[in-house]
Each structure stands twice: as structure tokens, then as C-alpha cells.
Amino acid sequence: MDDLYRDLIIDHYQHPNHRGSLADGVSANEANLMCGDTLKIMVKMENGKITDAKFEGGGCAISIAAVDMLLDYVKGKRLSDVQKMSGTEIEKMLGVELTPSRKKCAYLGLEVIKKIGL
Amino acid sequence: MNLKRYFPIYKKYPKLAYLDSSATALKPQVVVEAMTDYLSHYSANIHRGLYQMSEQASSAYDETRKLIAEFLGTKDEGEIVFTRGTTEGINLIARTWGETYIKPGDEIVTTQMEHHVNIVPWQVLANKTGAKLRFAKINDHYLISNDQWEQLINKKTKLVAITHESNVLGTINPIAEITAKIKAINPTCVVVVDGAQIVAHQPVNVVELGCDFYVFSGHKMYASTGVGVLWGKRELLEAMPTFMQGGAMIREVGWQETVYAPLPDKFEAGTMPIAEVISLGAAIRFMKSIGWKTIQEQEGKISALVQKRLGEIDGLKIFGPSDLANRGGVFSFAMEGVHAHDIAQILDETGVCVRAGHHCAMPLHGLLKVDSSTRVSVGMYSDEKDIEGLIVGLQQVKKIFYHG
Question: How remote is the C-alpha of A66 from its chain's centroid?
């Protein structure tokens, strides 16, 4: 547990780098059906590469930390490459092993980003 | 009194602090044994076999109906219909009574504190029939004010659906008083009560409540999942069309027409969940052997303790009546800056089982201005140690999220 709620995760949850919105850009949103939390992600792109990304919405520490770390990672990457990422990579970023129900929380950000442009 | 000894789960997990009885109650040994006995020794189908084993199964099944009638304070066993649970009971009423008697322009009233099961079937019914769906509001004390009924009920109100106890707020609605108010304004208005959250915790007498339908599930009162009860007034049940059609619910079938069986068989189509019904009979016998006095004293003591100890935690807000006289042992709360899922997960690590989410009451959580809450709910086996575990877990939550 101390592992799951290690300082890095709590820090991203309490002081996320990417909370907010973008005036222009493309976006998508999705709800976690288990808890009803909704998440919106907006990305700005130049030449197919992500230059900025923000998220809006509530969530648990796991889902917010996961989306914030994901948006740290996506800057400078191609959206199409990001959309090929797997849940395992999210778990690696968080550095923890998740139970099946918490995987849903952790993967929510990735699911939303995969919907962008569809 | 240590009631945990009747529940085999504590033999396997002696330190378990199970505080999710609102979702489903743990099962006592006698319930497990009654089901196993049927499945192992006389697992015949009921009512149609002329051999002894089938007679034995039929008699165990019918015995539960007798026990339920007595449990609800009615003498007419024909008014007791077995269902698969509260959800099926409410859907049955909406689909049969509702679709027959609700007309365009009629009004259906429910409340803001309902579980989705007491909202969605009425939305569907209102859309199908052209009726209007209205909601009784909750006040700042998480109660429904008396004036709500005077404002909402009129001659167009055909049906009122209300929970006896809220699965989020713990609020116990004074059903007898509410029914009297409704019937004084409109005597023909039908009152449907969702008793899922209360039947394991205090005696219910449907005659004294004055309602028309009362539904509940077996699994929240120490029986198996897959069985529930619909009680309805005989004249209403008789005037309703059938719900599901099939075996066992008929008197005579021709190629084009069918004469249905009398109550309660009319509503029990196909092979019913026999083992589950038998488990419900065992659960009622078990509750009788413990006695309401013991159950209510134990749960009352633990509920008071939960309220006191949660109240001592800074930044924690309980959504529900502060007066224990108006509530049962269901406590939903939010902690500032911490998501309910994180609370539940940290509690789980310390062996404390609670529920986190919207508890199938999304519109209510919207009113409470939170996406989700953490819910603690007590059963007869809950004790001081469980609550101690809860508080230790919540202190851990504070340590992680508040660094203090």
C-alpha cells in the first residue's frame, strides 16, 4: 500500500502538471463506469507531434497520477504512437502493480487519448 | 454478544472487518447448511413431482412463504411472490400494474434519495405511457419534509415509489405517516416501498405501513443471492396481468388461450430459485432465533459508535441525518481532497471492507455535489473491533494524503 500510494503518485495527484484546458486543440472524454468519474484530455499538435496536453475532470489518486504522468510523457511524441501504447506501459510509469479494478482507473487516461481524432 | 461466531467467514478471516452489509450481508452457517442440504440430499423440482423427494422440496419452499408472510405481518400467503430480488420486484410492478393502469397525463412520484432501481423503471414507464415523473426533494437534514407530499400528490398521482431506508444516506422514511398523507389526498394512489435496506435491521409490518407493494432481496438479510420477495395487496395482484409466462404459472393452456394459476403462482413462472428460497427460510429462522431485540441493540450500539468516531475526524463529512432516530446503520462520507476509491483501497489493505462510488445513486450524489462517497454499513455481526479497524485505516488515509 505504501508502495501504491508512494510520494510520487500523491504528488502528481495533489499537484498535477497538466490540469487545465487548451483554447485550441483536439479532445476526447470518457467515464470510468465503476465510479462515474469523467476525464477529458485536450492535445495541441504541430506536424503530427504533440506540443501541449491538458486534462480536466475528477478522479482517484491512481487515475489522476496516471494521466498526469502520461501527459508528461506524450510531449514531443506523435499522437499515433501514443495511441499504440499499452496498459502495461502505464503501470510501468506508475511503478506499481495494480489490482484488476484499479487498472480501470489507471488506464482511463490512455483510453481517452486513444479516442482522440476517432 | 458475539454474533460473529454464527458466520463461517470469520473462521477463515478472524480479523475481517466487513462493513459493506448494505451491498450484501454475510451468510450464517445455518443458511449455508440449509442450501447445501437441499442441493445434496433432496434437490428435486417442486410442486410437480409425486415422489417423496419432490414433496420434501415443495414443503421447504412453501414453508419459506409462510415464514415471509409472518415476517411481514400478513396472513395471506398468496400475497407473497418470490422474485430474483428487489430489482425484479420493482420491474414487475412497473411492467404489469404500471403499464396497465398508468395513462398519458398521469403522474408518478419518487424521491431524490432513491437507488437507480427505484428511478430507472419509472423513467421507462413514464416514457412508454406518457406519464410525468416527479421527485420529492430532500432537505438540509437529508430527510423528506412533510410539505413535499402536499405539494406533489394530487388526483393525477397514480403511483408513489419510495425507499424505506436510503442505501446512501441511511435515512429511514416514516412510511406509515407518508402513506397516510398520500392516501388522504388521493386514496387510489398506489404506494410502492423498496425495503431492501431495512428488512434485516428492524421489524416491518406491511399492514401497519399501509402501502400497496413492498419489495426486498434475500441476500441483504443473510440469505443467498438470487431470491427476493414482492408483497402486494391481493386485489391489486389479482387485477394485474402476468409478468413472465411459462411453466408453473398456468391453470390450463390451449393452443390460443391460457387460464393462469391463482396467486401467488401466477407470478412465479418457470423453475424458481429453489435452493435460494430455502436459504431465505433458513435466514428468517436464524434471525428469529437471534431476536430483534439483540439485533437492534447490537446494530444501534455500533451505529452510534460509527457516527461518533467518524465525527471526530477533521475534514470528514457524513451525508445523512445526524439524529440516530431517523437513520439506520448506513454511513456515506467524503474526505476533503481524497477520492473514495483511494479511501476504500487503503482500508482494504488493513482488512476493512467498505464500498466506494455512487452506490447506484448518481442523481443523489449530484445533489450532494460529490462524484462519489465512501460507505460504511453495519450488520448484526459488526462490533467495536471492526470500527477500531476502520478508524485506524482512516488515520492511515490522513497520513498518506494529509502528511499528518
Answer: 5
* A2 within some domain: no
User: Is the backbone of residue A95 left (phi > 0), alpha (psi -120 to 50) or beta?
Assistant: left
Name the minimum distance, in Å, from the CA of B358 to any CA of chain A: 6
Q: Domain limits at A14?
A: 7-115
Closest CA to A78 of A43, A107, A41: A43
Q: pTM here?
A: 0.94
C-beta atoms of B371 and A58 within 8 A: yes
Residue A1: what pLDDT? 47
Q: A37 and B372 in contact by Cβ < 8 A? A: yes
Residue A82 belongs to some domain of the structure: yes
Of B338, B345, B372, the CB nearest to A36: B372
Contact B84, B273 (CB under 8 A): yes
Q: How confident is the model at residue B48 (pLDDT cuts 50, 70, 90)?
A: confident
Task: List the grid coordinates of B197.
Answer: 435496506
Distance CA B7, CA B379 (A): 12
Catalytic site includes residue B353: no
Instruction: Compare A5 and A118 and report the one with higher pLDDT.
Output: A5
Phi and psi at residue B334, to the nearest 5°: -130, 145
| Total length of chain B | 404
Chain A residues with CB inside 8 Å of B340's CB?
Answer: 35, 60
> A39 — phi, psi (to 5°)?
-135, 135
What CATH number does residue A23 fall under? 3.90.1010.10
Establish whether this prediction's ipTM goes over 0.95. Answer: no
Q: Are B222 and B200 in contact (CB under 8 A)?
A: yes
The whole-angstrom separation of Cα B397 and Cα B19 is 17
Asked whether residue A104 is assigned to any structural domain, the reply reads: yes
Residues 77-106 of A with CB under 8 A from B: 102, 105
Asked if residue A1 belongs to a domain, the reply is: no
Q: Looking at chain A, which residue has its C-alpha nearest residue B358?
A: A35
Distance from CA of B400 to the nearest CA of A (A): 7
Chain B contacts of A36, Cβ < 8 Å?
357-358, 362, 365, 371-372
Show the domains of chain B with their CATH numbers: 31-287 (3.40.640.10), 291-402 (3.90.1150.10)
- Counted domains in chain A: 1
Distance between CA B15 and CA B348 in Å, rounded? 12
B339 vs A1, A4, A61: nearest CB: A61
List residues of B whose CB lies inside 8 A of any A CB.
337-342, 345-346, 349, 356-358, 362, 365, 371-372, 396, 400-401
